[in-house]
Fold each of these.
Amino acid sequence: MRTTQSPSSRVTARSLVIVMALVVLQAASPPQEAPSILGFTAEGAAAQVELERRFDALLDAGNLEEWMRYIVSEPIYTGSPHNKETADWMVEQLRAWGWDARLEEYRVLYPTPRIRELELVSPTRYTAQLREPALPEDATSGIEENRLPPFNAYSADGDVTAELVYVNYGIPDDYEELERRGVSVEGKIVIARYGGSWRGIKPKVAAEHGAIGCILYSDPRDDGYYQGDVYPEGPYRMEHGVQRGAVQDMPRYPGDPLTPFVGATEDAERLTVEEAPTIMKIPVLPISYADALPLLEAMEGPVAPPAWRGALPLTYHIGPGPATVRLHVEFNWDLTPAYNVVATMEGAEYPDEWVVRGNHRDGWAMGAADPISGLVPLLEEARAIGELARTGWRPKRTLVYIGWDAEEPGLLGSTEWAEHHADELRDKAVLYLNTDSNGRGFLGMGGSHSLERVMNEVARAVEDPQTGVSVWERLQAARAVGGDPSALGGEDLRISPLGSGSDYTPFLQHLGLSTLNIGFGGENGGGSYHSQYDSFDHYTRFGDPGFVYGVALAKVAGRLVLRFADADVLPHRFANYHETVDRYLGEVMSLTDDMREETERHNRLVELNAFGLQADPTETYVPPSAEVPVPYIDFSPVRNALARLGAAAADMDRAVDGGLATGALTPARMAEINGVLQEIEQAMTDTEGLPGRPWFRHTIYAPGFYTGYGVKTLPGIREAIEQRQWDLVQPQMQRIAMALDRVSELLRRAAGPPVS
Ligand SMILES: [Zn+2]
């Protein structure tokens, strides 16, 4: 899986504009001075700069290439023979590099397909191929042994025959459009294209509307020939390429569907498959556009609205039917071992403070881009850190390097580990740093807003391999050209809030640990995602030739790890955090005003029967009904809590940075501040969680209930408003205000008594 966090808007503007932007940026750079690093004393900073220089010098792109070639030589999905072989190999490597490494095993529900059949039965006949053929240009595309064919994990078993309805992306807005056209999916099989939401949302919404089956396909408009040349000529999805993927109801909870809230150890109490609420209730199957074409060609009914039309050579019709299909899927509902590779290097001064760094090690097929392009930099960091340790350096804090298993079926390896070790992690972890896939282009940065300053500082220190400026300057230029006015000033670039989609989710959303997720991309577009063609050959031609961005990722991630490991005072700072949460509140407030105005306008149009009169009388049109008016909402609890937080944040940042600069902080005081900072993200969570999904405990960020990956900030109030659940708004407001006040209280403790 990968995140929706897109590293930058596409840089398509004229080069002149870029050159001008760079001139402005360079004029603004300060002259070289004695190094200063967030969280370090002046003396500590000088030593850290030297340590990072030695770390960089140890990194070797050749290792990344060699390890990827080996790991992706056979399929690496959870439960495959090569998955276990590569886990054992990683443990051996890490031990040889000086780490204490082991496998941690969980037993998780991982259904694999037994029967996959899809047939158009009328008005014409067509049997879907459901397979990805070998290509001479791709050395692993013909591997048949231990190969998993295209399927959606946690689809229900089922054998259903019904008419098709084309539902575009299959998100709630699309069903409103269907309602206007008088088309119901009740008792039908829907066909939805990938995109527009996380894939698991599509069958969930289809089932909520009464559909009995769901077909997902990759339209060439979204990642095929409409975007660029297809594989093997170019990187985009070829006609038989299929996107596999999980469809469990992850916005409810991720991880093993049978063991919510607890680690899936051998003796864990388990739900039955029938009881597990996150398993899909209808059969689901992913197909290629070669297989989708005859189905869509056989459809009639209303022509799809312009925004729904893909790039296949046909007129898109909504149906229902007359195309009728039979969809038959059955699975082996087995428990499978999932092996996390866990390596530790004990801290010399604070062994009970942990810096945790992870990337998953399972893929759907060969998994070159997703996830091994992110895993091999992690391994190279671990090797280089091992080399540094051989020369006598030791991290002050304990380092924990992890290769997760079973991320693809739904973040299983990380979620089970986080649930299993929850108490210890809440007590000890100072950072969870995630990567998952890497490519050519711009640095994507997401995570806890209290880490925005350290993230920016590290990005300023690493060189972009294609241009020679820092990766920060390259991102700044892209954002500035893309129209972000704040990017030209030289102040910190904003990092994205995290929803879900990779292994950071349990650490941030459930445990409330300080979290970052990073990766390069934006210039490696393509359509190999979750197909057999996500291979070594594809990645080394189109992903990151020469692994230069793999090395850049190791430099960024390695610096973050080393700075958190050795900082005198942890680099959490709160001015940026306050500004950002304040902006989120502003967004929710204007959302409410916009919705109120829009609802008034809508209700007036209903009253005038304008919807009915504007429609073409020869076509079916069901006018919408009036909406409940949007009430005025009292945002003052959160506004006041934010005002208190703003003052506390400024005091704390000043007290800590000032104390470090002047050497006024005693070791005891620094330890006290570190204790507070370690807890602070947890103060943003509560055990109540979000309405109807208590596993998600963070009050500032969560994946949306109907977007899946897509983040909702201040999710409690934002989703209550979006879903017009007015009675939930004030309780959620109180929940967020209380969390912000807990943060303020901790910031006051960290700042110490006011200096007079
Ligand atoms: Zn992934």
Note: The chain is about 40% helix and 15% strand.
Amino acid sequence: MSAAVDISILDARIQRELFERYRDMMHKAVDAFVEVLAGDLVSDKKMTLMEITRAIAKAEPKFLTTAVEEFIRSKHGDILSLEQAQCPCCKKKVQRSVQAPRTIETLLGTSTVTRPYFYCGPCKCGFFPADAALGLSPRRKQDDLQKLALEFLADLPFERASELFLKSTGISFSDHQMHDLFAQFSEGATVEEVIPSAEEIERRIDEVKSKGKRRPVLVAATDGAHTPTRPRGEGRGEKWGPGEYKEAKGFRLYLLDSDRIVHIASWHQVCSAEELGQALKAAAARIPQQKVRPCLVGDGAPWLWNVMRQAFPGAREVLDYYHCSEHVHALADAQYADDPQKAFLWVESTMARLSHKGEVGAVIGGLKRMQPANDTAKECIRKIVNYLNVNKERFNYHGARRGGYAIGSGGIESANKFICHVRVKRSGAWWLVSNCNNMLKLRCALVNGTFEHMFDNHATREKAKRFSRNA
Ligand SMILES: [Zn+2]
């Protein structure tokens, strides 16, 4: 009992001493900081705000470096001065080999940590216990900088991201380093990480549910977007092969909360319909389907209905209203080319009839009886009859609206635009499929709110890799 008391008194005294030491060091650092500014402070020269902030920013790094380095020394003094440590492989005690300095960069600038290095001869295993205690990244640029760089490059071309990174943080992060980080981060990322967890999805559903009386409508929508890709060149000296547009297939899951959309998850990849189907199934498995009313929205592409039906069997199916009306408009323009008024009325009445259950057959009958005004109209009729036949069960817009379901695919189209187009389709950009898919994963993660968690996983993986390499 008395021994425990003694230890706690001793601990308190050591802590007090550490605190006093840190305070002394920082007082000195402040003095040095002010000293650097002394010239500007006492000179007669008038200074604008910009000149003042620049002068302070120039003096600041040294101060912050001291703040960080001394803090580490105070907090981890025991581990930094270790003379013996346990080998992680054979668990035997090993004597310290050397004290090895290491330079690290964080948002607060460049610091040096001098920490003990141990080497177990029989195991051929070298290790730094302090690196693990501090959670150091094997990269010189630490986690905070990496995270910020990823967010920059998710929105900007690599070169521009690198430029702005330097301007805003004062730290150089080359586009080459960014590329490397990006590839490491995204390649290891899986759809399971990019889609929010079952708990998080349920939380979002419960939030919407608590406001309304009915179960909220969960919309699953799929769509494709053309992305500019090109392969690596095959011939010598050829960097790139010929450009080709490939379809990035994607889905978005969201809840309808009166006139608001509550985002659940987006996933886009240049991949096969089967691969997209697998991803959608993985997402669907995390949704408590008894808590929502699932509704599938898409255009006429059959691959997409197969994929959605497999993930959400028995869900309500709605053909995108606007997509449907485009087909109807195309026929009206061809058939009544010289009478816009008539074309307008025909579109109106056709869409109104399609909106009511059981009217699709009558519309198809009417189309079949229609005398085509020209060859274009004839072709339009053939197409639209086929389209209506295939999607017969997916109109009933009237009923869908009454039930609070979605009738348009605006939700997926805006996701397509926001996730794919704005970054992947920048003018002059051509992507290797792997890079394009990596970028889509990163952008989906940011939109889905899973980026932070994914970054932690990535950082843990990199640290584990480094450790196993050492071992
Ligand atoms: Zn060993």
Note: The longest strand covers residues 93-106.
